[in-house]
Write a structure and sequence with these properties.
The protein has twelve helices and eight strands. By secondary structure, the chain is of the alpha/beta class. It has an eight-stranded parallel β-barrel, surrounded by six helices. Helix 3 links the parallel strand 3 and strand 4.
Length: 296
């Protein structure tokens, strides 16, 4: 469990593999997971944004959680993203994660409806108590449409059994306040293009979509910052950001572009689920940059 592993490092938010019909094809992830472990990533975040968790049934999500746990088999930190529209589904996913030896659960705040601050706070309070697994908050206002004030995030980080947050927010002023006010919290950098900055501020690691494509570069950034070599980290960040810039041009929704990029690198994880559509833009530059970055 978490006591035996470091809560930090470069965590890959795994894509979920589908077959040609768009059905779950969990076995396709085996070779990719082994590749990431060989490269040296510190763990995996399963069922999140990159994993299209909200496009899947609870049964599908549980099946992929099971398969990933079996393949990893204790060789890395396992974080299960259990957020769902139904709180009952959240609890079902949490229980399944515990049964399958996950180290941590994580969850987006409730969204779709305009929930009050009190409702969001009580959601996390209940979730933190429903399992012995530590809880990692997931702040991603760009997709949930839910902005959480810095003061409220600080309050949530102080809840029993809450160990930190996946800070997928460009607001680094807020991040600095969290790091200062709750120094024991494990704050992970979310925006891939700002990993160097997040680590330099004191974040414990990063969890980001393009780690699927360029794990070596992000590991090198992580290690460079740890060694105090910010010059090297900045150069590596610029290489990653060139890829990200082109990815966002051809795939504003990111996930289709991530899966396309994996296919270019030799790992066919299928297409992103609808309503995402296949890429239509010219991908030549993206492919050149991706291959040049030597990610996998």
């Amino acid at each position: 469990m978490i006591q035996a592993k470091k809560l930090g490092g470069i965590i890959v938010p795994l894509v979920t593999p589908f077959d040609e019909h768009g059905d779950l094809a969990a076995e396709k992830a085996h070779v990719l997971i082994e590749k990431y472990l060989d490269i040296g990533v510190h763990g995996f975040y399963v069922g999140g944004t990159s994993g299209e968790g909200f496009f899947q049934s609870t049964d599908e999500r549980c099946e992929f959680l099971r398969v990933v746990a079996e393949v990893v088999n204790g060789r890395g930190l396992l974080i299960a993203q259990v957020g769902a529209l139904s709180e009952r589904d959240v609890y079902a996913l949490t229980g399944f994660a515990a049964e399958n030896r996950y180290d941590v659960i994580s969850s987006t705040p409730p969204f779709y409806f305009s929930h009050t601050d009190s409702e969001v706070m009580e959601y996390y309070r209940r979730l933190a108590n429903v399992s012995d697994l530590p809880l990692l908050l997931y702040n991603i206002p760009g997709t949930t449409g839910r902005s959480i004030s810095t003061n409220m995030q600080i309050e949530m980080l102080k809840l029993p059994n809450v160990v930190g947050s996946k800070h997928t927010d460009m607001n680094f002023f807020s991040a600095e306040r969290l790091l200062r006010e709750v120094p024991t919290a494990a704050i992970f950098n979310g925006p891939d293009e700002m990993l160097t900055g997040g680590l330099a501020m004191g974040m414990v690691g990063g969890i980001g979509s393009t780690y699927n494509l360029m794990p070596r570069i992000y590991l090198e950034i992580y290690n460079s910052v740890k060694l105090g070599d910010l010059s090297s980290a900045r150069l590596l960040q610029a290489t990653a950001n060139d890829v990200i810039d082109e990815l966002l041009r051809i795939s504003p929704g990111v996930v289709p572009g991530i899966k396309y990029g994996l296919k270019v690198l030799g790992f066919d994880m299928g297409e992103a689920r609808r309503p995402f559509l296949p890429l239509e833009s010219d991908t030549t530059r993206y492919e050149e940059l991706l291959i040049g970055a030597n990610g996998l």
